[in-house]
């Protein structure tokens, strides 16, 4: 691109066709969804398969050998702490391996936050019904939580409200997390 030459590195995990772009001379990594500064993308095992966590770990181990000064993630602001972000992601994935329930809770919580972020606000009295009309919420609850839709919804809403991840604005839920 322009005067810059990038190596394409296959980084499956979140998505089987995931890639990062690396400029060896400038020590720049365009990390896409392989690496974010404080989080990482949804691990959709129903889509990417039960080996997605191991695959993502292998991808992170592969890019760990790169010399990186600046990271431009697919989401969030550019950052400098490549090794620290890498270690946070690896630790979290290892936690997911040790306790598969953590994958389920991460996924269900991201469904809530992303839905509210995309819509900017959601009506408190119809949010549950809205989630039930999506593919992601019922499928995830069916896969991990034995069809216990309402109690999972109530648990996440209560936790998010107590942690100030969502707030009440009039008759709507809004998220305090900004894209």
Would you kindly provide a written description of the structure presented here, covering whatever features stand out?
The structure is a single chain. This protein folds into 2 domains: 92 residues, Metallo-beta-lactamase, Chain A; 75 residues, Arc Repressor Mutant, subunit A (Orthogonal Bundle), CATH 1.10.10. The longest helix has 20 residues. The radius of gyration is 18 Å and the shape is globular. By secondary structure, the chain is an alpha+beta fold. It contains 7 helices and 7 strands, in the order βββααβααβαααββ. The two termini are 26 Å apart. Helix 2 packs antiparallel against helix 3, helix 3 crosses helix 4 and helix 4 runs antiparallel to helix 6.
